[in-house]
Amino acid sequence: MNPPEPSLSRPSGRAAAPMVRLKMVIAYDGTRYDGWQIQTTGTGVQEKVEAALAALFPSRPRIHSSSRTDTGVHALGMVAHFDIPASECRIPMRQLPLAINAHLPVDVRVLSVHRAPPGFHARFSALGKQYRYQVWNRPVMNPLLRFTAWHVPRPLDLAAMRAAAAHFIGTHDFRAFSANPGHPRGSTVRTVRRCEWRRSGPLLTCIIEADGFLYKMCRGLVGTMVQVGLGKYRPDDIPRMLAAADRRLGGMTAPAHGLILWKVFYPGRNRHAGAATAGAAEASDEE
pLDDT tens across 28-37, in order? Predict the structure, then answer.
């Protein structure tokens, strides 16, 4: 069950302070971080962003994110929101990203900040997300991509991988391709709207869009499709894996460092926030 959204009003008996909700798009290189969330051990990206906000706003706002990326996963389009008293809105909106970034490490950047529309929540207003996964398919690794692409030195059958990708599109139980998050979870059914591979020389990019993602689901899909490309599985093995809903029958989990949260989709005319411009309604375990 989702935790209740914190109240924006002060305790009864005191006048409520007018609050402003701000929406951010954040990019980061996840190499040095133990995922997005604040950690009891290790460092999450969220901790760095909240420390930067605390340097600017006396209320020390907490942020609520659209996703919870795993250790080593990157983002170009992480969306988050935070609430501050209206009295603290002294920095012009166009200058706010620069002000926040001045307090952030070089591998984390706020790309944009805007006032959020009424009722907006970075996580629960999201209609879906797009992840991209990069594979360098050549005997020798490109050193410039060593932190953002999985090196697969053996030749891959791209046609077979594309045939496998087509089986993932639609509404399915993706239990066979997700890891156990270590806590009880609800439905493991998700709707994948797009799953395709693009090639640019030896660089292969998998684009996956869905209404939500289970824990390590995206990496499970990519790892399985790469194994199809290596001949370990056939494309028509995918429906059998989906039907079994058993992680032991799915393919491998691809390494974290090739995965990028690319954009998050929201209702409205400008329906996404992410790399191009800077969970579904049900909570998801995420990558």
Answer: 999 999 999 9
Closest CA to 163 of 190, 196, 211, 124: 196
pTM: 0.88
**What does each C-alpha distance from 38 to 4, 69, 70 come to in angstroms?**
19, 11, 12
Q: Give 191's strand partners.
A: 171
Return residue ranges of the chain for CATH 3.30.70.660: 128-274
Domain with CATH 3.30.70.580 in the chain: 19-115
For helices 158-168 and 217-229, angle between their N-to-C axes, nearest 10 degrees: 140
CATH architecture, range 19-115: 2-Layer Sandwich (3.30)
The fold of 128-274 is Alpha-Beta Plaits (3.30.70)
Query: Which sign does the torsion angle of CA 85, 86, 89, 92 carry?
Result: positive
Please pick, among 29, 70, 237, 285, the residue that the annotation labels catalytic.
Answer: 70
* Tokens linked to 46: 């969220």
Q: Model confidence over 43-82: pLDDT tens digits?
A: 999 999 999 999 999 999 999 999 999 999 999 999 999 9
> Could you confirm whether 107 is annotated as catalytic?
no
